[in-house]
Amino acid sequence: MPILTTPFAQLDLLRYPEQHNSPLQAFDAADAYLLQHLSSLNLPQSTRCLILNDNFGALAASLATHMRVQSSGDSFLAHQALRNNLAHNQIDAQAVTVLQSDLALSGPYDCVLIRVPKILALLEEQLIRLQSQIHANTVIVAAGMVKHLPRSAGDLLERYIGPVQASLAEKKARLLFVTPTEKPSSHSPYPSTYQLDQPKLSLRNHAGVFCRENLDIGTRFFLPYLPKNLGQAQVADLGCGNGVIGIVCALNNPQAQLRLVDESYMAVQSALENWQHALADRAVTVYAADGLGAEQPNSLDVVLCNPPFHQQQVVGDFLARRMFKQSHRALKVGGELWIVGNRHLGYHITLKRMFRSVEQLAANAKFVIFKAVK
Questions:
Q1: Closest C-alpha to 165, from 175, 177, 149, 173
Q2: HSE-up of 104 (CA within 13 Å, CB side)?
Q3: What is the CATH number of the domain that holds 296?
Q4: Is 292 found in the same domain as 199?
Q5: What is the domain count for the chain?
Q6: In a shared domain, residues 56 and 108
């Protein structure tokens, strides 16, 4: 297992969720480059440091005993990775304050370290919130692997915080040094809203939500095939995003009891607001979690899912397979998992290994819908 060695610490770091025999690491050259640069600044232990989008906790765990660290991001899985890595390296959990992305920052900060996220709208929202939380001498450094660091990220840093100077690339990583300057307070353009025609819904989407500007085509294909006549079934919308699948299912099934689950705090916030707008005070459970891990075994009748095929920048079906396993555990015998997925991913092969029967309900040139019965 590779060890992250920097002037701050030597750490054995794990990805979360863990993948056995995976070559993927819980840190990259951008983390190491950022920490190496920070060590040259000799910041005092009293430094109030904010870390944004620390994928697996490499930055926060490295700095935990050297500064007063807060870690903020939009991923429940990333925060769980941080907690696990603190424990794994015998670092006091209280050494880092974890802030969900839907909670207010508590500056002013002397140092801000930013891993540029895949969703640049999330970065924009974070920078707008950051404006009132820094001072003229705040050290601000953003980092990323060159292939994942678009020019528009630097443009956002410059627009909302101040002039940006890029480092030389090192091991395919780059740093962006940002000088805070006086800026007028910015009004956030988020959440954004789009309209759905069938059924008629207005859907709010906070900055971290996947496919924020319009309904993704997989979900659009899925909606007309969602189950009806479920009676008082216990139904979960797993990886709910803005909640549209769960909301449409609830409209189709007035007696069903829904829970909407996602690992993105901003998705959960969007889903709750959209539910309240569409269904007023009808009871629902909406929460951020590691999939259905918190649900009781054999407790659900139906799980609906449009599974992701990436974690941060890594593409693959690992998270989807994990969601299928969680669904199987949470479903009652005879319970049903309904999924939509890209045809080329071959989810039916995985599902047939886990479930008693798998039926294809619909398909088009790009997507396929399956119902798997436990």
A1: 177
A2: 5
A3: 3.40.50.150
A4: yes
A5: 2
A6: yes
Query: pTM to 2 decimals?
Result: 0.94
Q: What pLDDT digit, counting tens, does each position of 155-178 carry?
A: 999 999 999 999 999 999 999 999
Q: Categorize the per-residue pLDDT at 315 as very low, low, confident or very high, splitting at 50, 70 and 90.
A: very low
- Name the residue with higher pLDDT: 179 or 107: 179
pLDDT category at 23 given cuts 50, 70, 90 is confident
Residue 213: its pLDDT value, please?
A: 79
Contacts of 120 (CB under 8 A, 6+ apart): 150, 152, 153, 156
User: What integer pLDDT is reported at residue 22 of this predicted model?
Assistant: 75
Give per-residue pLDDT as tens, 325-358.
Answer: 999 999 999 999 999 999 888 899 999 999 999 9
Interval 71-109: pLDDT, tens: 999 999 999 999 999 999 999 999 999 999 988 999 899
Claim to verify: residue 214 and residue 346 sit in the same structural domain: yes
What is d(CA 348, CA 343) in angstroms, rounded to the nearest whole number?
9
Amino acid identity at 231: G
CA 10 to the chain's CA centroid? 27
Structure tokens at 4: 């992250």
Contact 122, 208 (CB under 8 A): yes
Domain around 136: 3-178
- Same structural domain, 174 and 228: no
Task: Specify which residues 97 forms β-bridges with.
Answer: 70
What tokens does 278 get? 């569409």
